[in-house]
Amino acid sequence: MFEVFKKLNWFFKHYWKRYLFAIIALIIASAIGLVPPKLIGYSIDHIQFETFTMQLLVSLILGYLVLLVVHYAISFLWDYTLFGGAVLLEKWIRSRLMDHFLKMTPMFFGKYRTGDLMARATNDLKAISLTAGFGVLTLVDSSIFMLMIVAVMGFTISWQLTLAALIPLPVMAVVMNKYGAAIHARFTKAQAAFGEMNNEVLESIRGVRVIRAFVQEKQDAIRFEKMTDDVYQKNIEVAKIDALFEPTMKILVGLSYTIGLGYGALLVFENKLTLGDLVTFNVYLGMLIWPMFAVGELINILQRGNASLDRVNQTLDYEADVKNAEKIIEVQHVDSLQLENVSFTYPSTKNNQLENIYLNVKRGQTIGVVGKTGAGKTTLFKLMLRQYAGMKGKFKISGVNLEEIRLEQIRSWIGYVPQDQMMFSKSIRENIQFGKSDATDKEIFRVMELAHFLDDMKQLPNGLDTEVGESGVTLSGGQKQRVALARAFIKDPEILILDDSMSAVDGKTEARIIEHLRKERKNKTTFIAAHRLSAVTHADHIIVLEDGRILEEGTHEGLIKLNGWYSEQYSQQQLEEGEVTN
Fold it and tell me: How far apart are CA 328 and CA 64, in angstroms?
């Protein structure tokens, strides 16, 4: 049951002073809370024996007021310190999760779906935070505070009466242990179901246009209703066990009260106990209700926290597929890129996506990468970005193996514009500044001119401050591509990769962007993958991929003379453009 505290040992070690102070303050506050019942019993005995005076009444009232003020101050301190620590734990783990997500490769995100990761970063973290706050409170109250009450009842009133009243406690321990095991298993299933529902919500929101276009609203609503019903049923299963805690505790507490009152009255009749002591004992027995309830709450919270922590740790323990090598070689400049017999297979497939690739690129060259859909163009770029492990052959930058260069260094050299552009739910200015955080408006306008986006800017309501909406929903496909291009241009990278990133713009706009690129990147390396071959005719070297192999390579003029796939495709595209123009 207490495994969750062992798993959080790293956090408690770091903040042990905070938690030690909170626990000591909590114990002191609890001890102060034990004084008033004694004062009540003391007063009743004086009233019974007619020795109660005005001076005694004033002293008791003043004593109560002092205890009230001191108890309030100490209670504030332990509450602030303890629950502040719980917030720190939640913040710390959330930061660790975010750092972990940013280090992960596509393999990780293929295994864990976005909705499930969101559930772990929200619901599960709340359950862990509750363990570090309310869990510690219930632990102290169900152990130390309970023992303090029992000790005061036994030593100052009657051990016989105390032991008799506590007979139901062993029964409670057995029952609560069974409830706790059931809570752990059911809560784990409920959290997993919530993660699946999150995934469905995300996919439905992202694909709302497709859902509407195919008139699938009803089917999607039915599917979502089934998932919410599944989440509901699993949470009901948790609630059924949760609901058993309180009535079970009330029955056991009721038994303690019955024993305490009945046996206590007998002791009063036998003059072994005063009336004041019996009243004090029953007040203490009433105070014992919360610690007894706390036992149930503790088991409930710890089991939920343990289940959630296991889910979060499972995510954090996932090792990145691509890591920095133990020995890093520093490379100052990108003078060349060499691919020697490079082959690659995705972990989930058996066939090679790239096979026996040889390529030698010098600084300042523009390389065109063309081929049919699925030929391996994007895969080649992903290897360059080191998104996957398991590459065979040698991939070198300035004569140094890619694996021996720091990941952060490689990615700082590269400006990547993928096929599917990612727009952040911010303004156009902020989206472009993602490539260079301190970019001025002058620099932004310059790269927007390179991306041929200035004319579109005039149509936007707030210019650079126009919010693009979630995933750039307010922009057209061509506009998103050009904003993404501007974001890459402003970085002014050593290596620029354009992965079919102008497919949504017209031929004239593409030609102007390419012309701007030729002027701006004379001494920088550029890779352009495209289906429209006019985008690569100016390239220094063009490779044609087919089934992961280089089918043809050379300059545009050389490939035309080969009369192969490139020549045939180029002629067909030129013919189609001519027909469109006519």
Answer: 69
Distance (Å, whole) CA 269 – CA 258? 17
3-state SS of 122-173 is CHHHHHHHHHHHHHHHHHHHHHHHHHHHHHHHHHHCCHHHHHHHCCCHHHHH
pLDDT tens-digit map of 76-95: 999 999 999 999 999 999 99
| 3-class DSSP assignment, residue 18 | helix
Task: Say whether domain 336-581 belongs to CATH 3.40.50.300.
Answer: yes
| C-alpha gyration radius of the chain | 36
pLDDT tens digits for 192-203?
888 788 878 877
Which three-class secondary structure state does DSSP give residue 192? helix
Residue identified by tokens 């005063």 is: 274
Looking only at the bridges linking them, the beta strands covering 400-401 and 392-397 are antiparallel
Distance CA 398, CA 331 (A): 7
For the CA atoms of 154, 160, 166, 167, the dihedral, rounded to the nearest 10 degrees, stands at: 160
Tell me the fold of 16-316.
ABC transporter transmembrane region fold (1.20.1560)
In angstroms, the first-to-last Cα distance of the chain is 78
* Domain boundaries, given as residue ranges, for the chain: 16-316, 336-581
Contact 514, 352 (CB under 8 A): no
